[in-house]
Amino acid sequence: MTEIFDSDSLQSGPTALRLLIGAQLRRLRESSGITREDAGYAIRSSHSKISRMESGRTSFKRRDVADLLTLYGVSDDAERASLLALVAQANAPSWWSDYRDVIPDWFEPYLGLEHDAALIRTHEVQFVPGLLQTEDYARAVIAQGHEHDSPEKIERRVALRMRRQEILNPPTPRKLWVVLDEGALRRRVGGEAIMRAQLEHLARMAGEPHITLQIVPFASGSTIGGVGPVTMLRFTQQGLNDVVYLEHLTGAQYLTKESDVRHYRRLLDELGVHASPPAGTPALLDQIIERL
After folding, report:
1. CATH class of this structure's domain 96-290
2. Which of these, 60, 98, 191, 260, has the minimum number of CB atoms within 10 Å of its CB?
3. pLDDT at site 9
């Protein structure tokens, strides 16, 4: 996994807070000229734990952070109290903790990033993105991908996906920009009735002011860049860089170095240019619905 770190009314969640705390700890360590090895020794651990802390990929123990602040020469009571208060907030349970039985370890970080992002840009080629799926469509997709799961577990996965969609609701809906390959709309999932309802749902969501939906039609030729699904998340908190999420069959990759992220940012920009304009999306969806 690439190491992380190289508003509006949206409130920082635990994942964003861990990223912010980690970035601050890294800045303090580097400014004091202390190596990760020495920092790890000071908290009775290793340099790899310091790396995980600085990249926001682990929870924080108050004692560890306090000891690091002392090592880095932070003696001001107010500054110490401020960072330690963020540690307490970052360690608070997240809503998805109730669904841990159906969340792969590699997907849990994404849930936190998705929840804390202000803008989510995604390109999908096979299925409608999870944030825009109807419950029946989601159930069909999940059942197809987890055919050995019990019905109860399938429903747990569906409930998790529906819960994720709450970030698109008021009072602080996230901005969602989707570029969807026409093939994902033509691929029948769950039967005609389910597909019709899904396409009608997309048409409604495309009319929401915080959602941009574009379609890459077959007529445009091959997919630009020849890549599969890609998601980029942007945050309003100062000090947080964009994160690119690439999901694979048995895991995921999180890209956070600007040298990596810029290529995917450019890709998404190019896809947006070559896709049909957002204003034309409802008409394209109507055409596909008529041919079902």
Report:
1. alpha beta
2. 191
3. 33
pLDDT digits (tens, 9 = 90+) for 194-230: 999 999 999 999 999 999 999 998 877 655 656 779 9
CA separation for the pair 231, 129 (Å, rounded):
10
Residue with tokens 């001001």: 76
Whose tokens are 């303090």? That residue is: 28
Transcribe 144-178 into DSSP letters.
Answer: HH-TTS-HHHHHHHHHHHHHHGGGGSSSSPPEEEE
Give, rounded to a whole angstrom, the gap between the first and last alpha carbons of the chain: 42
d(CA 43, CA 41): 5
Q: Tell me the residue type at 252.
A: A
Structure tokens at 241: 């860089």
Domain 14-90 has CATH 1.10.260.40: yes
- Ordered by start, the domain boundaries in the chain are 14-90, 96-290
Q: What is the DSSP letter of 292?
A: -
Q: How far is CA 23 from the centre of its chain?
A: 19
**Tokens found for residue 169:** 């609701």
**Tokens in use for 55?**
């990249």
Based on C-alpha coordinates, what's the Rg of the chain? 21
Taking the CB of residue 170, how many other CB atoms lie within 10 A of it?
A: 6
CA pair distance 20, 11, nearest whole angstrom: 13
Q: Does the model's pTM come out above 0.70?
A: yes
Which residue did the predictor score with more confidence, 16 or 161? 161
